Amino acid sequence: MEEAILLVLAYLIGSIPTSVWVSRYFFEIDIRDYGSGNAGATNTYRVLGSKWGTFVMIVDMLKGVIATSLYVLIPHYATNELHRTNFMITLGLAAVLGHIFPIWANFKGGKGVATLFGMALAMQPLVAVSCVGVFLLVLYLTRFVSLSSILAGLAFMVFILFVFNEKETLYRIFAVVVAIMIVFTHQKNIGRILRGTESKVPILKYRDRRKQRRK
């Protein structure tokens, strides 16, 4: 019964539609009516700028951290590592499900990448930090948040399976599922990148302008 209550709470935390509330409160628009129509950090970067895009990404990551850490409310999981890991994965996935299908925003949310990373941060901080490093490097080089998210998701799988060689079977399966899910939910972005029509986020644009002037 306690687990069921915490799973519902994790879903509700994940359902907090950060970008939707920010766009409505500060800009009097619905972020889902602009750009890609997605209620996530990538579209927020695209439509509202880097400041609000960063804010949304951080909050969405915190949703994953908080939801995944709810296991601490049940003493049993403090002493059983296997059960704790399995329950943390379940809590985190409930939060991601909430982000993608938020009850507070008519079940139309984002792709869940930032919340997934928050979940990874709560479970395996070193892996999460490594993935964030991949994300930031790709973002710096390309200014594509979508591509950064895809490669960071693939890196998560590589880190879990090969670099850190995680032994827990469910965690290894979860890493593969995450990579597949991120690629699947970014199919349209991949298509736009290949066609050269994917929008870049408004960061480092002055660096790009300087490069253009030098040519």
Question: How does this model look, in words?
Answer:
- This protein has 215 residues and is an all-alpha fold.
- Helix content is 72%, strand content 0%.
- It is built from eleven helices and no strands.
Judging from the principal axes of the Cα atoms, what is the shape?
globular
Oligomer: single chain
Structural class: mainly alpha
Helicity level: over 70%
Mean pLDDT: 90
Distance between the termini: 65 Å
Runs with pLDDT <50, length 5+?
none
Radius of gyration: 18 Å
Q: Total number of helical segments?
A: 11
Q: How does the major sheet shape up?
A: none
N-to-C order of helices and strands: HHHHHHHHHHH
Strand tally: 0
Q: Number of domains in the coordinates?
A: 1
Estimate what percentage of residues fall within beta strands.
Answer: under 5%
Please tag this protein with its features.
mainly alpha; 215 residues; globular
In short:
The protein has helices spanning 2-14, 18-27, 41-48, 50-68, 81-100, 113-123, 125-142, 145-163, 169-185, 187-195, 205-214. The chain is mainly α. It has one domain (2-214).
